[in-house]
Amino acid sequence: MSANPEPTTHPVSAAEGAAARPAAQTARKRRPLTPFWRAVGAVAWKDLRAEIRSRELINSMVLFTFMTVMVFSLALELDKEARQTTVAGVLWVTIVFAGLIGLSRSLAAEKDRGSLDALLLAPVDRSALFFGKMLSNLLFVLVIALVLLALLTVLFNVTLLKPLLIVVVVLGTIGFTTAGTLLSSMSVHARAREAMLPIILMPVVLPVLISAVRASTAILEGLPRDDWFPWIQLLVVADVIFLAAGYGLFDYVVEE
Amino acid sequence: MPAPDRTIEVRALTKTFGLNPVLRGLDLDVPRGEFLTLLGPNGSGKTTLLRILGALARPTSGTVRIGGWELPGEAEFVRAQLGVVSHLPLLYDTLTAEENLLFFARMYNVPREMRRDRVETVLRRVGLARRARDVVATYSRGMQQRLAIARAILHDPAVLLLDEPYTGLDQDAAALLDELLREVAIGGRTVIMTTHDLRRGHALADRIAILSRGKIAFDAPCREVDPDALPALYADTTGAATTR
């Protein structure tokens, strides 16, 4: 530490001293707060930037996805019809468990290095922090889902890149990551948080998973609209409920 | 709407964790521009008090006003006036110093056209301009703490809360931090610093207070306190042994 490349601080110049003084003189003015969506964008941008540099989460998630799909592919030697029936289950099981890797680290990493306090100290509506974290988690899980769709298409020889299926994947992932971000912020103060998150998250996202699997299976089997549309409606309702819960509850969940 | 007067007023503040009371009816006033050093043994409630002032924890009872804004109801307005330095740097180690500060500039609503200038100014001020594009993970502990100060003063806050900022610093880095804290106190900022370093706390501050068992047990201007007698005074007040 003593071998410091810049051993001295910059002395306060008259100009900088003057720049500091307005803080005192303008004290009676109300400082404008950070707009909600600017804070959401800033948090999501920061997470993406940090992840692009470290590739800590995305590498683990991609590796897990690849291994899981390989295991399923080798373990289930299925004919074309059976593959079509099981592929939706494989898709969602992999999304959920790969997603859990990202969700459990997202806020835990902030807590461990103390930066969660820095976020909570910012003069922003705390639900903006929730939406920022949720947005970055959503992007990570969607990247994994995209990789997964391509992998399963190759290994299971089933066409998964269908617009309707992609809509289901996006809706299901929104519900899963929204609930996951909220519950990971609840478990972040717990000692065994990595073990706790799946235990508290799974029952909560069960309606999303059931709807997503049923809608995906119906779409892949080419069943009529009545067989998949109600499940998509259920997904939309679950997403809205989870987003509203995140908006309303995050402030209470993160505060001591 | 209350008129922000940049003072800190704490009245009958209590904070309980479960059945354990940490703050027990604490009263404290800090006038504008004053540097207050808060001393006290571990568990006396120093960090809890700063976390309540920083709107990171809710008081169990009592009132807290900062700059005329009341906590917890007007927490966002209070947070807009605060800069906080902790013993942890509260930075992202995979981002560069510049990226960290640009992120916090956005979070503190520094106008877009001023952000880069402001970031350059504070980096120069803490002596890190040449390392601005280095990832924070490559910084020494002392450099991280200087960057933490840059983050804390980025939005030109009226109040600085410093929670044991010297933890983990060697002598050179601590001396640099002294210099920086003296500089950032210029300009009418109100500063509250907690520390276990009695001499350093006395040398930097205008006023010194000792927190013991959740209450202010001693409070006096530094000019009225002999630094050589401070360790004995501290030991008498808190019942703790100290050699500093």
Inertia-based shape of chain A: globular
The third-level CATH topology of the largest domain in chain B is Rossmann fold
Low-confidence stretches of chain B: none
Given helix and strand content, the structural type of chain B is alpha/beta
Number of strands of chain B: 10
State the order of secondary-structure elements of chain A, H for helix, E for strand. HHHHHHHHHH
- The CATH C-level name of the largest domain in chain B is Alpha Beta
Our estimate of the beta-strand percent of chain B is: 25-35%
* Tally of distinct domains of chain B: 2
Largest sheet of chain B: 6 strands, mixed
Q: What level of helicity do the residues of chain B show?
A: 25-40%
Number of strands of chain A: 0
Number of domains of chain A: 1
Cα distance spanning the termini of chain A? 34 Å
How many alpha or pi helices of chain A?
A: 10
What topology emerges from the helices and strands here?
The complex is a heterodimer of chains A (about 260) and B (about 240).
Chain A: H1 14-20, H2 22-25, H3 36-54, H4 56-75, H5 80-113, H6 115-121, H7 126-155, H8 163-187, H9 193-220, H10 225-254
Chain B: E1 8-17, E2 20-30, E3 35-39, H1 46-53, E4 61-66, E5 69-71, H2 75-80, E6 82-85, H3 97-107, H4 112-125, H5 141-153, E7 159-163, H6 171-185, E8 190-194, H7 198-204, E9 207-212, E10 215-221, H8 230-238
Parallel strand pairs in B: 3-8, 3-9, 6-7, 7-8
Antiparallel strand pairs in B: 1-2, 1-4, 4-5, 9-10
Helix pairs in contact in B: 3-4, 4-5, 5-6
